[in-house]
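Hello, quick one for you while I still have it in my head. A protein chain has come my way and I'm curious about its shape. I'm sending you its amino acid sequence along with the backbone structure tokens. I'd be grateful if you could look everything over and explain what you see. Here's the protein in full, and shout if anything looks odd to you:
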Amino acid sequence: MARTPSGTIRSVATAFAASRPISAITNATEAVVSCASHALVVGDIVEITSGWARLQKRAFRVKTVNDANTIVLEQADTSNPNLYPAGSGAGSLRKVNTWVQLTSTMNHSSSGGEARKVTYKFSESDVEYSINDGFSAVDRTFDMDADAITTPGYLALRTLTDVQTDTIMRSIAKSGATSLLPCTINLNEEEVEQDGQIVVCRVAVSGNARSTRYAA
């Protein structure tokens, strides 16, 4: 069902639990992660560090807690052993402890994430060829009311800009559809003025990995 961005709630992660070691990740349509005494519950959001480059820095939702030492990552498809060599996915995870909602934002836009292509031509041919070469980095931008300077969201963006640590941006639509983007934040506190418009500050979001999206 189609939807619009109106009413979407956006938040950033400002605090994570201590990183915990992952001893193994299975090859499965939804990966089973072995993490001793993880203390996670269904619905928790975790950032993954893994020997598998395709999981590195990705954010996922905990779908199932099998026991005190294993969880299932929703939509983390690691079933292809050519892309995810068996036995080499170990690493660590950290749970998001605190989300801070961003209020008084507007003019959200996104770029990147498109397929990168390499075009080539052999000298004996008069035809060019094109092959896929992964995906471009994701970038997002938005404006925030400059007078929101005392709100928790503005202060969180300022802190994340100062420290430049990895975080996660979460977007939840009115329908419940959710997007998770591992990223870093850059808040430009210089005021932008334009006749007939409110004064704003601009925010740039630099993606660290592919987004993970969940249906409502």
